[in-house]
Amino acid sequence: MIRSLQFSLALVIILLAACRGTVQQDERPTITVSILPQKYLTERIAGDNFRINVLVPPGASAETYEPTPRQMQNTANSVLYFKIGFMEFERTLLRNIQAQNTNLRFVNASEGIDLIAADIVDHGDHVHLFGVDPHTWITVTGVKIQVRNMLKAIIDADPDNKEQYLANYNIFKEELDLLHAELKDQFSDVKRRTFIIYHPALGYFARDYGLTQISIEHEGKNPTAAGMRQIIDIAREEGLKDVFIQMEFELDNALAIARELGGEVIEINPLSENWTDGIKEISEKLLMVLNKD
C-alpha cells in the first residue's frame, strides 16, 4: 500500500513537471502603452502580433499614476512605447526607461493633433502655457491621428506584415469615419450645449461637437467655496443640473453641486479598455443630459 502510494505520488510529480515543460513563453515582441484605450487601438492595427504592456491599471488615475518596478522592466524590454505625450508620469518614465534601453523607440501618438492648452496666463507681452490638455484619445478625430501614428511605427517595427497592418487600419478608419459622422449628427441639435464635469477630460470631444465643459476641478485642485458658488450660478443660468465624473475621482464636490442643483452625479469611464464602446457610452450619457427638459 505504501509503495503504491509512493509510486502514485512520483507519477503525479513527473506529470506536473512534464506539463510545466510544455508551457511556452510568449515570444512576441512587446509594445508598451500608457493607458488601456491605447491597448485597444494598438490591437486594432497590430492584431495579435505583439504583446501589449499597459502601464496604468484599471481604476488608477492616468494623471498621477506611478508605474511599479516590474512595469518599468517590461517597458524597458519593449520594442515600442506609445505615449499619450502630455501626462506627467510619462515625463518621469521617459527619463528612467531611456537609460535602461537605448533601443526602445518612443512614439508620441498625439503628434499632429491640434492641442488644447490646459491653462493660459497672459502677462501682456507674453503668454505662459502651463500645460496641455492630455485627453487626446477621448474623441474620434484625435484617435484617427493616433492610429495613423501607430500604424507607421508598427510597420517600421515589423515591415514583413505591412499589408496586414494596412488592411486593419483601413477597416478601423472606416469605422471611425462612420462614428464621427453619427456623433456630429446627434450633437447638432441638442437642447443645450454646456455640461458640468468634475475633471476636464472631455475638452477635445466638446470642441469637435460644439459643446462647452464647465470643470469643477481647477489646475488639479478642488474648488474653493467661491469657485463652487460660481459653478452653481453658471449652471442655473444654463439650466444644468447633472455632474459628470470619472470613476477615479472622489465624489464629494460633485455630489455637493449636484444636490444644490437638484441633479445627479453621472459616472463616465474615459479609460475604458474598449475605446469604441467607451466613447459611445460617454456620448449616450451626454446626449441624455443635454436633451433634458
Distance between the termini: 81 Å
Mean pLDDT: 85
If you consult CATH, what is the topology of the largest domain? Answer: Rossmann fold
Unreliable stretches (pLDDT < 50, length at least 5) are 1-19, 120-130
Large-scale geometry? globular
How many helices does DSSP assign? Answer: 10
Can you walk me through this structure?
This protein is an alpha/beta fold. It folds into 2 domains: 30-183, Nitrogenase molybdenum iron protein domain (Rossmann fold, 3-Layer(aba) Sandwich); 187-290, Rossmann fold, CATH 3.40.50.1980. Helix content is 48%, strand content 13%. The protein has 10 helices and 10 strands. It has helices at residues 2-22, 36-46, 69-76, 88-100, 140-157, 162-186, 203-208, 225-238, 252-261, 275-290, and strands at residues 30-33, 51-54, 80-83, 105-108, 120-122, 127-129, 194-197, 212-215, 243-246, 265-268. The strands form 3 sheets. The chain has a 4-stranded parallel sheet, sandwiched between helices. Strands 8-7-9-10 form a 4-stranded parallel sheet, sandwiched between helices. Helix 7 links the parallel strand 7 (194-197) and strand 8 (212-215). Helix 5 runs antiparallel to helix 6 (162-186). The protein is globular.
